[in-house]
Design brief:
The longest helix has 74 residues. With 822 residues, the chain is α/β, with parallel strands linked by helices. The strands form two sheets. A nine-stranded mixed beta sheet has the order 4-3-5-2-6-1-7-8-9, with helices on both faces. The protein has a three-stranded antiparallel beta sheet with strand order 10-12-11. Helix 16 runs antiparallel to helix 22 and helix 19 runs parallel beside helix 21. It is built from 23 helices and twelve strands.
Length: 822
């Protein structure tokens, strides 16, 4: 029953694709209808938009033939994209290297029963033609090949391949064959850059033109056959090796994919590469709404005081303007998942791990070092230990949850996802086609003066949008200013608390130090030697049984009398001395821990302030923007509609826009090592000294010891230094939090406003450009206008049904998908 219903929807989607493709072909074939991109005012459709739209439709048609759900996996360099794909597949089908290897997009398709991966490259002719071109260029420049190898020895194999006249095959089997192919393509791209030749990227901008790796995904091997087919798309990141063309390729492939997995490097969440990736993903979220996921990789490198998992998810959600829901964001370690999964699979299939000395089993050593420890080689034969380690690291990788929620769900519902993706693109494109054709058609029946009136009105609409934008940007800035003020006030208060805590703990430390020294000096020298305790005070020789002459020095009791004298702590004396670095560090650790309490409380207050800001933005401010924008677009549609224009303008995607992290407090540089001159006791060596010490120990005296002057090592802690360090740490914390406000609040909100109003202005400006072209049509001859009108009338007839059927398909496909995944 499900298959029958899906087939009906698939056929309907194919019919609509053919209808839209036919309309676009007619638009392209009609003389004078479409302007060349960049040569005139912005239009709803120009030559570039037209070509790209037809490519998207062709790609959707190809995917629907097999009900392909294509999940684009994209990430910045060193984010772990290849490792993530390998972890999903359960086999190393892509090289795990720091160097970029994704020269052109590559498909990885789940093929049940295919244990050994196989790469198919039917579209190999453009690459082989390139090899001939490179060979000719090298032949015409003797010695050039050698110079290239001298600067880049790793290119020697590719250069030899080219100069020998070899061809790239259509099929490569096994891991080594696939790696060889991928490296060859990457090397050819690099050689082209050196020779200033153009790599044929344009020949690989369609799904059916790409290389395909067919392999069974281990996690899906025991799953029942699904309707549709799941395919991963390994997409070049925007910052790989500084190749600017990759940004264009990335955007193109993201628009054509059914869903997107963004692999983010936990340690570089605010890098330029991640910002570029964010921009590209935000640009396609309307087409892939509900099908965009984020894997925050390398989360196992999180430090003790870094933000927790929920905070990271919230931060990523906001940086992507809420387009990736929190429950679609996963903190993972793809590397841990990959090596532990290989170990689990090897134990299950072979009962042991393979020989780590074989090149293809290099992962065994990585697994051993990571999961078993330094003595991993001694543990490989202990299957229980290996199994427990593999299971433990798999659980700790955090990969099981996204594998179930994203990959398993995508596999079971691939056909529904494919239809939902296609329907979204059909609706989006049908609106563009309809607005363009209707505006140009109606414009031909209007006078130039009538058209100019509408053009002027649209200019006024654009001004109203600009005014609304400025108004809401001002409100957003006021909102952000209030947040910044609350942050600054709270931080100033915490600075005062921090200094008070430091002073209080220092004074307590002074008192504790005096008590300690007093206790130490209550022992005889012999007792101190036996107990192994030391002092920073002078050791005065006890010649009587009295407890006088106990301590000396600024942190000790005064000597010279028979009775102990309690020392009063001098508030103006601002140094503490310790006999060991560990004791000094222990004292500072107590201050660090005490400071964490008010700072943590402050973090919670700032999180609440942050939440309040976003609630206001995503609630009141957002609704006002959507309402007023809708009023402008409705007024445009109504005004043009009253004059015969059939225009449909929808409000863009809803305008949407981190946790405050506690940095590690380290006051260790508050310890200053030094020396001081003190009185010390040493054993006498004369005859009878041992007897003296024996009786001295009985009577509590230092008989048998002599005083001498010595220099000892001490570790000082200064209140002045601690106060300065406290200020510096809190200032660093303040800078960190202001950076959080800027990066995770201001930037997302401003980007949201810019994206929303940019799309809004684009709609109105595109319509205005269409009407301006209509004015230009008036300058054509009568026969040319009649010919254009006839062509447009033949297209207009199909538009109402196209929009209505596309929206109906989207509603039906989305409803069925929603029922399946809930």
């Amino acid at each position: 029953m499900h298959a029958d219903n899906l087939e009906v929807l698939r056929k309907e989607a194919v019919r609509l694709i053919q209808l839209e493709s036919s309309l676009l072909s007619k638009v392209a074939a009609t003389p004078g209808l479409v302007s060349t991109a960049g040569t005139s005012e912005q239009q709803t459709l120009d030559s570039d938009i037209l070509e790209h739209s037809m490519e998207i439709l062709e790609g959707e048609k190809t995917k629907l033939e097999a009900m392909d759900m294509v999940v684009a996996v994209v990430g910045t360099m060193k984010a772990g994209k290849s490792t993530t794909i390998n972890a999903i597949v359960g086999a190393e089908v892509l090289p795990n290297r720091n160097a970029p290897m994704t020269a052109i997009p590559t498909l990885i398709r789940h093929s049940p029963g295919m244990k050994e991966p196989k790469l198919l490259f039917h579209n190999n002719q453009p690459i082989n033609s390139l090899c001939e071109t490179i060979n000719k260029a090298l032949s015409n420049a003797p010695g050039l090949s050698g110079r290239i190898v001298q600067e880049a020895p790793e290119l020697e194999g590719a250069l030899a391949f080219v100069t020998l006249g070899a061809n790239v095959s259509q099929e490569y089997k096994g891991q080594s064959g696939i790696f060889e192919f991928l490296k060859s393509i990457n090397d050819l791209v690099r050689i082209c850059r050196v020779l200033e030749l153009e790599f044929p990227f344009s020949d690989y901008d369609e799904m059916h033109e790409l290389p395909v790796i067919e392999v069974e995904f281990a996690a899906l091997s025991d799953k029942e056959a699904a309707l549709g087919r799941l395919t991963l798309l390994d997409t070049p990141g925007p910052n790989e090796a500084g190749q600017k063309h990759l940004k264009v390729m990335l955007r193109d492939q993201l628009r054509k994919a059914s869903a997107v997995i963004a692999v983010l490097n936990y340690n570089q969440l605010k890098s330029q590469g991640d910002q570029d990736l964010q921009d590209e993903i935000n640009a396609v979220t309307t087409l892939a709404k509900g099908r965009v996921y984020a894997f925050v990789n390398r989360f196992d490198e999180k430090r003790r005081n870094d933000p927790d998992e929920d905070s990271i998810k919230t931060m990523v959600n906001r940086r992507f303007d809420n387009d990736i829901p929190v429950d679609s964001i996963f903190a993972v370690s793809a590397y841990r998942a990959f090596i532990s999964e290989l170990a689990q699979r090897s134990l299950e299939e072979h009962g042991q791990l393979p020989d780590p000395d074989q090149p293809e089993n290099a992962w065994v050593e990585e697994f051993g070092q990571t999961c078993l420890g330094m003595d991993w080689e001694d543990k490989l034969d202990d299957l229980d230990t290996v199994s427990r380690a593999a299971n433990y690291f798999w659980e700790k990788s955090g990969f099981g949850i996204p594998l179930e929620r994203v990959i398993h769900t995508a596999h079971q519902n691939a056909a529904y996802y494919a239809l939902d993706s296609t329907a979204s693109k059909l609706v989006n494109l049908s609106e563009q086609i309809s607005n363009f054709i209707n505006s140009r058609d109606t414009a031909l029946s209007k006078t130039a003066a009538e058209l100019q009136k509408h053009i002027d009105s649209l200019r006024g609409d654009a001004h109203r949008i600009t005014a609304l934008r400025e108004e809401k940007e001002k409100e957003a800035e006021d909102l952000l200013g209030d947040l910044r003020g609350r942050v600054s006030d709270a931080l100033a208060k915490t600075k005062k608390q921090g200094q008070a805590i430091t002073r209080s703990l220092f004074e307590k430390g002074v008192i504790a130090q005096v008590a300690r020294e007093k206790k130490v000096m209550s022992h005889t020298k012999a007792e101190r030697e036996r107990l192994g305790i030391d002092t920073v005070s002078d050791e005065k020789k006890r010649s009587a049984v009295s407890l006088g002459d106990l301590m000396a020095g600024k942190r000790t009791l005064a000597s010279g009398g028979e009775k102990s004298k309690e020392q009063v702590v001098d508030p103006n004396d601002r140094d503490l001395e310790f006999t060991s670095a560990d004791d000094a560090k222990s004292f500072l650790t107590k201050i660090e821990q005490a400071l964490e309490v008010p700072i943590s409380d402050l973090s919670e207050q700032l999180r609440e302030a942050l939440s309040s800001t976003f609630q206001h933005f995503n609630g009141q401010l957002e609704s006002e923007i959507a309402r007023k924008s809708g009023e402008i677009l409705n007024a445009v549609s109504k005004r043009l509609g009253e004059d015969g224009f059939n225009i449909s303008l929808k409000v863009p995607s809803t305008v949407n826009s981190s946790a405050f992290a506690l940095k590690t407090l380290d006051m260790s540089d508050g310890i200053k090592a030094g020396t001081k001159s003190v009185t010390r006791l040493r054993r006498q060596t004369a005859t009878g000294a041992g007897v003296k010490r024996f009786f001295g120990n009985i009577f509590g005296t230092d008989w048998g010891y002599d005083e001498y002057e010595a220099r000892i090592k001490v570790f000082r802690v200064s209140l002045d230094d601690l106060s300065a360090i406290t200020d510096r740490l809190l200032e660093q914390q303040e800078n960190n939090w202001h950076e959080v406000v800027r990066e995770d609040v201001e930037v997302p909100i401003n980007n949201s406003l810019e994206g929303f109003f940019g799309e809004l202005e684009k709609k109105v400006e595109g319509l205005r450009g269409d009407l301006l072209q209509g004015v230009a049509d008036k300058e054509k001859s009568k026969s040319e206008q009649d010919e254009l009108l006839t062509a447009l009338k033949s297209m207009v007839r199909d538009l109402p049904a196209l929009q209505e059927d596309s929206e109906a398909l989207q509603s039906d496909a989305h409803s069925r998908l929603k029922d399946r995944v809930q």
